[in-house]
Design brief:
2 copies of one chain form a homodimer. Chain A is of the alpha/beta class. Chain A has helices at 13-24, 26-33, 64-69, 86-95, 105-121, 138-144, 160-172, 176-185, 194-197, 200-214, 233-241, 304-320, 359-369, 394-406; strands spanning 3-9, 36-43, 59-61, 75-78, 99-102, 126-127, 151-157, 224-225, 245-254, 259-269, 282-289, 293-300, 336-337, 344-353, 374-379, 384-393, 410-420. In chain A, strands 7, 8, 9, 10, 11, 12, 13, 14, 15, 16 and 17 form an 11-stranded mixed beta sheet that branches. In chain A, strands 3-2-1-4-5-6 form a 6-stranded parallel beta sheet, sandwiched between helices. At the A-B interface, helix 2, helix 6, strand 12 and helix 12 of A face helix 2, helix 6, strand 12 and helix 12 of B.
């Protein structure tokens, strides 16, 4: 059987798992691909380090550029992460007409459409299934299925770290800081967790999904983003009592014309909603489209083994599709971002009532007066009040909260979150 | 833009929805496909009937063979259902080098691998996304993703009719016959519901999924099949009290070597299991594989609109992939079916104890003596006893039940089902 040379950049958790699968299962993969993907060259930071498995006849180099330049390599697998030097290496490979497989969400979110056009220009492939949801094949699903549908919205839990933290806050009744420490100890959060807890990781993934679903490229900075640092144990606990679970919801929707809205925000998810019980490190993506309606893909969306699953699947696909013409990416429309007056959300507010007589009634009346319906109001001990607010433009919500903050009936607004129902 | 001629066999619910989408959205579909799929010819049973939408310049014929033979048609969409004459029409199209898109699960279950080989022989494509789970893109997922994984098992709810009936039996506390009548009135069950309630529809779909997941072709007759006619309201109700929901579970697993096991059986699904809350007409497929672990695809898996979603997506894919070489299907291994001694299941038994002293203890002892563990035993009124039995080979389970039936401690075995836990 013919073989196709594979070069691998990085031999960490993901790269190591990819190398092992390519070496151990070359026969199975070859059968599926129609030619054997043969690992020829690997770039590692420390060439002297032992790997715990036999790299056999694979050339091991310290300079990733040497892998890209190796004439025996037809497909470059990028598994080093970060934007620099990953972006330049991917560009160099594509310019050399080599197909690239990458798990790099930061690179694809920032430069996916440009790299995709570059790939087509040089008749090379660009595959990035692992960049969102790791082994969960959401990229393949958006690229290869639903081609007769108009996709209206995406609703996702696509960051494992924040979901592990929020799950722990609820189930153990602890604070954000405590749950973060626990996630760190269990290997679910990095020493510097900013990328995850500030929502950037979810933003990158959502930008990629929105690109494939809507044919628009939104800059990560253009996404309405709020992380989970300010989510309090009190809100998570109070919501749990009402049947809600707080998740970092990544949502994208298409408005009229070419307008879109992308947001990543902690959101209270109501009972019966498909995302309600997606706990811990599970990922889930809900796609709403006009013919199919609502579908969900759910499963493990992180970890070396899961990410390797997607990378190796991409390698097999790349080998399978070698020699077939690379399709030019669809022309991108320039997105108009929906304004806060057009984005409709429901909400959750927890506040401290003042001792003023009729404070509770005045608060609820003030909300209604400002165009925000009250779906439910729940009294907690100590004159705390929870209000579940109805769907209204975000701008209307925000103005109503500002008003509440000025009322003598309200001592303090203690927490506010978006809310979605089944 | 170049156009590719589409011929459509059948203009019922599915065919009509496909035709409407092809006509209304030709521009969008053309952008996605790289060439416009242009509906050229439609075969209907009654050419004089009005359709409620404008077929414009499409040629309408009474003889489906005329569509296949039409030189303007490059892709034949088969939407007439049943095996005869659908199989012969598909064969004729493939032999003429025309690509076929079909929603026909009976044809693909019986003849998928043979037709797939025939397609490759004539350099034609064969697409059948709609044959399982309608618009839920499970076929695309198994064909195009997880190519680096070894799939170990599939667990599916893939028949809407039985799930609607079983959901109604639980939520309304009614009998099978009553729930069937209700499903008929709501359009979820046909006048003759045998294909659904006897499990054949799920068997066909499972055979197709197992083909793609394991590379084996199991004849529908070779599947361990039990329908839902004998499921009693008493069992569904008693299980609901314990937190279980009964579903017609379609399960496929790979044993050692080339052995596989496929079964379709009513099964009690425990709390926390991914299939637990897949109620009504929802479909769901869980794939367990070695690198990715467990993933689930869930959504609407029936109906004209959902089925049309898959058919049109296949048409776009077929147009997109025109001119690229058709990959020969992987060589099929001849499956060995796992025997009842190797297939391990957990169970549920409801029985009527006799008035014999110590009857309850004797029953539980008899089970343990025959190698079946007792996970839990629950007493109902009227000396009924429920036993949740532990995982053991099916043969061991069956022999233990036969033994119970002979005991003087047991008046009658009232119900028995498989059981799965989270």
């Amino acid at each position: 059987m013919e073989s196709v040379g594979i070069g691998l950049l990085g031999l960490g958790t993901v790269g190591g798992a990819v190398a092992r699968r390519l070496i151990d299962e070359w026969e199975l993969l070859g059968e599926r691909a129609g030619a054997t993907p043969a690992l020829r060259c690997v770039a590692v930071r420390d060439t002297s380090r032992s790997r715990g498995f036999d790299l056999k006849n694979v050339r091991v180099v310290g300079d990733p550029q040497a892998v890209v330049a190796d004439p025996a390599v037809a497909i470059v697998v990028e598994a080093i992460g970060g934007t620099d030097p990953a972006t330049a290496l991917i560009e160099a490979a594509l310019r050399a007409g080599k197909t690239v497989v990458t798990a790099n969400k930061a690179v694809i979110a920032a430069s996916g459409p440009r790299l995709s056009a570059l790939a087509a220009e040089h008749d090379a492939g660009l595959y990035f299934e692992a960049s969102v949801g790791a082994g969960l094949p959401i990229i393949g699903l958006l690229r290869g299925s639903l081609l007769g549908d108009r996709i209206a919205a995406l609703d996702c839990v696509i960051n494992g770290t924040t979901n592990v933290i929020l799950t722990q806050m609820r189930s153990a009744g602890v604070s954000y800081e405590s749950a973060l420490g626990d996630a760190r100890r269990r290997g679910f959060a990095e020493a510097d967790p900013s990328l995850d807890v500030d929502g950037w990781d979810a933003v990158h993934k959502l930008v990629i999904l929105a690109w494939l679903a809507f044919g628009v490229h939104v800059a990560p900075d253009g996404v309405d983003r709020r992380g989970i640092r300010d989510v309090t144990g009190a809100d998570v606990g109070a919501l749990a009592q009402l049947g809600y679970r707080v998740r970092l919801l990544a949502h994208a929707e298409r408005g009229s014309g070419d307008s879109v809205h992308l947001r990543v925000r902690p959101t209270a998810v109501g009972p019966g909603h498909l995302l309600h019980d997606v706990d811990d490190a599970d990922n889930a993506v809900i796609i709403s489209s006009d013919l199919e309606g609502t579908m969900m893909l759910r499963g493990l969306g992180a970890g070396g083994s899961s990410t390797a699953s997607a990378v190796v699947s991409d390698v097999v696909t790349a080998v399978r599709e070698r020699g077939t013409p690379v399709v030019n990416p669809a022309a991108l429309t320039v997105p108009t971002m929906l304004g806060d007056a057009d984005v409709e959300v429901a909400g959750y507010v927890r506040l401290q009532l003042s001792a003023e007589p009729e404070a509770r009634a005045l608060v609820l009346q003030a909300l209604e007066d400002r165009g925000v319906a009250v779906d439910a109001a729940v009294d907690l001990t100590g004159s705390e009040l929870i209000v579940l607010t109805g769907v209204a433009p975000r701008a209307v919500h925000d103005r109503a909260l500002e008003t509440l903050d000025t009322l003598t009936s309200v001592d303090q607004i203690l927490g506010a979150l978006d809310r979605v129902e089944a």
